[in-house]
Amino acid sequence: MNAYLGIDIGSISTKGVIIDENLKIIAHSYLWTEGNPIGAVKNVLRDLRGQISEDVSVVAVGTTGSARKLIGVVLGAQIVKNEITAHAVGTMTRVPDVRTILEIGGQDSKIILLQNGIVTDYAMNTICAAGTGSFLMSQAKRLGLEINELGELAMRSKNPTRIAARCTVFAESDLVHKAQIGHKKEDIVAGICNAVVNNYLNNVGKGKRIHAPAVFQGGVSKNVGVVRAFEEVLGHEVYVDEFGHLMGCLGVAVLAKRAVDAAGAGSEANFDFDVQDVSFVTRGKECDKCPNNCEIISIYREEELLDSWGNRCERGVSA
Amino acid sequence: MKNQRKERGRPIFNGDLCAQRMTKTMKHKISFPHMGKYHIVIGRLLEDLVGENGEVLTAPAITKRTIELGAKHSPEFVCIPFKYNLGNFIEALDNGANVLFHTSGDCRMGFYNEVQEQILRDLGYDFRLCILETNSRNRSLRDMYKMFKSLNPQLTWTRLISSLIFAVRIIFAMDKIEDYVRRNTGFAGDDSLEKIEKRFLTEVANARGMFHVGRIFRRYMKELRAVPLDKPKNPMKIGIVGELYVLMEPFSNYFIEKELAKFGIEVTRFINVSYLLFSPQHKIKHLIKQAEGYVTYEIGADGTDSVAKCVHFARNGYDGIIHLKPFGCTPEVNSIPICQRVSEDFGIPILYFSFDAQTSETGVKTRLEAFYDMISMKRDAGREMPEIPEIPMRG
Fold this sequence. Notes:
The complex is a heterodimer.
Chain A: E1 2-9, E2 13-19, E3 25-32, H1 37-51, E4 57-64, H2 68-75, E5 79-80, H3 83-94, E6 100-104, E7 109-115, E8 118-124, H4 133-142, H5 150-155, H6 168-180, H7 185-203, E9 214-217, H8 224-234, E10 238-239, H9 247-263, E11 280-286, E12 295-301, E13 304-309
Parallel strand pairs in A: 1-4, 4-5, 6-9, 9-10
Antiparallel strand pairs in A: 1-2, 2-3, 6-7, 7-8, 11-12, 12-13
Chain B: H1 2-7, H2 17-21, E1 28-31, H3 39-50, E2 54-56, H4 64-73, H5 80-94, E3 99-103, H6 109-122, E4 128-132, H7 141-151, H8 157-184, H9 192-205, H10 210-226, E5 236-242, H11 244-248, H12 256-262, E6 265-269, H13 273-278, H14 284-290, H15 303-315, E7 320-326, H16 330-346, E8 350-355, H17 361-384
Parallel strand pairs in B: 1-2, 1-3, 3-4, 5-6, 5-7, 7-8
């Protein structure tokens, strides 16, 4: 049976799915990246391999996420796509009539507007990473909670604390202050959830019309407190898919399938899971040929140079 | 004499008060900040005007070091062109420059020169700052003559006028060539158009006179047109609007036009020096008319231009618009909500970028790639399903 592999390597987590010919998910995995994308991908591959039967053969690979280029080279991917397109395609395979995709990830957040299955507009946080998953994570730590406890706790709150939503630095000082004057923990957590939503709508969603059906995804969508806050502000139901965290890799797996289909029969490659036992090394070097000091990254597979990037002119040296 | 001038309210930076501080025997070493390729013509103009009394030291091309130097010594929240300018000045002064030229502007840019002069003096540099007024309200040939006369006592009116006309001729030729390259380089398959443009610039910088510029221009235009293009009948088209510096200095916008060309997109940009200084299209009356229904009063600086051009691109069937601005650019921030309305009314997507010293290059590329995917999917959908009537966007 032919299958397609999609991997989404984000700043915080690495996700992978294998889909069959009918775009059905037959294996999926979700692990922390922990600053080591190649290692994380190897672990994801190991996990995925354990979930599929022997007769499944992966014929195409796609990568997305912030490490898409690096992992694309490592895995010899047929398609390397940006997160926005991948998420739109992935979500449409699950919810074909979706109009708005709200997405809050570890380091970035984005909004994608669609009409008749076509992306008509999108925005992504540019300068500021306020109100993303990493903010929630650091605040959970400060309150001595696990990140996955936040949502349940927020749901118990009857009177959410008001927390400044404009900027996480302000939000954090607000938070410290309110905790010290005796606000209850669940109220503070609910306040953080509201702040995340308000920040998102003000920064990323500004000026955009949010139509139903809206799908909320990204790691933060696992937080029921944030989902509730979204529904309260938008005034309509916000759909959270059980595979919401896998939309990026699902999308790129679909795109990999399309790429193979478009290229016609015979273009299928045979993906070898043994890649997880091969050693990949990256080496960085600052080119010193001019004051631009391009940071050149070269990637080696068993000492053989696969690719390098970061160079801006013809003078660059390989690392 | 000099005190009298001050009393008459002339800014001291414009006069030659600063020249007093410099020893008279010192030869003028003139420099100026970069913006795109215009250093070629500005350098040539200054060379012509100063003659034997000085030499032009073009600042080193903008690199990461330039922006690091500039950002280090600038107020943190100033807009990014300030930081580039200051970096250029520091690198030029370190190379031995002692006369710096700068322009004025309609927004914060109007105060750049005063603040930058103070910063540079505080850093211990000794130099003279001269302002080339670009604002048509304050532009005065007489002031310009006086300024250059103080640098070059042999200067005559004839020399000034002929050098200016010559420079303007070069600017027009450069802008026309650049415009052709920008529209078509995505279809040439390689960088042959850019290579021709590069040769054109070196040659035109050494032109012997007006007519020579014309001959060079025509020869290179012919050469450019002779390059075979693989251009579809109805190519994907994107218009670029926004703040002038980040539009015209490719380093500051991460070579966005080149990136777009790689996707096989025809890129249109109105703003260049000849347009800003001389085009009747840039007159505020015309802009407000072009942006009818969206703007009644002037936004300030180039904000009105951005809205008017968004309307123009939307009306002329462009696939998308990219709006560039330095982080915190007030006129452009004001224009964004209006551009957003144009986008909704015409159903044309607009991608916004804010640039500052630390913007990640990968982030820019990701957004551009997604923008390209979006407009190409939109096109494909339009082609595959012609039987579905299009929903009228305006009643």
